[in-house]
Amino acid sequence: MTAPSFPITEIVASRRPHRKDAARNYDALLAAAREAFAEHGSEASLEDIARRAGVGIGTLYRNFPTRRHLFESVYADDVNTLVQVAQELADQEPWQALTAWLDRFAGYMVTKRAVREALNDESEIFAACRESMYAAGGPLLERAQEAGQARRDMDFVDLLRMVAGITATAFDDDAQRDRVLSIALDGVRVSH
Q1: What is the pTM of this model?
Q2: b or e along 127-159 (b: 16 or more beta carbons within 10 Å of the residue's beta carbon)?
Q3: What is the pLDDT of residues 104-137, one digit of tens each?
Q4: Which UniProt keywords apply (predicted)?
């Protein structure tokens, strides 16, 4: 049985440099950008991102010729990670797999807000991300529903909107956000 193919996985692979040193700089820039976007939103300084990554601004521009290219690459890389996590969780007990993936999704939503400010819903990257996320995460909900562990009167879009709504709220800390998410997921779970 071959592993499913996701559009975003192919896009991420095509953008990542093949030389080890270039790939290392690329990965460091993505991590630094993700951190800076989470802290400062879409207006994060490119110079600050390069400094955090331990590279020069020229290296940033070689990898990401425009600010938009950097936003798209961070967004695509985050969604690709969610796709990989869904695949890793596929063999776990259905409810555990679903909630573990939703926990990662909630963390991703923090960075996504800043990146989405710079992207529009019609971009190729956005469409590939949406398609890949639904194809990877949707089956986790379906498995939990088939196992009688999750409500059947909701679909994957409903679930993502609920989690996105929760993560859009300001919390005192991550523990409070996790607690509120857990309370909401209790409403999704079928009690026996």
Answers
A1: 0.84
A2: ebbeebbebbbbbbbbbbbeeebbeeeeebeeb
A3: 998 888 667 666 666 666 677 888 888 898 999 9
A4: DNA-binding, Transcription, Transcription regulation
Sign of the dihedral through C-alpha 132, 135, 138, 144: negative
Give yes or no for a contact between 23 and 15, defined as CB atoms under 8 angstroms apart. Answer: no
What is the chain's mean pLDDT, rounded? 88
Which two tokens mark 29? 């820039």
Angle at 35 between CA 105 and CA 168, to 5 degrees: 45
- Sequence-distant (6+) residues with CB within 8 A of 116 are 75
Separation of alpha carbons 4 and 84, rounded Å: 11
The 10s digit of each residue's pLDDT in 49-79 is: 999 999 999 999 999 999 888 988 988 899 9
Predicted confidence (pLDDT) per residue in 137-166, tens digit: 999 999 999 999 999 999 999 999 999 888
The Cα 42–Cα 115 span in angstroms is 6
Helix locations, the chain, DSSP H: 7-15, 20-40, 46-53, 57-63, 67-89, 94-118, 124-146, 156-167, 174-188
Alpha carbon distances (Å) from 44 to 98, 118, 189: 33, 11, 39
Cα distance between residue 23 and residue 150, in whole Å: 41
User: Which residue type is seen at 154?
Assistant: M
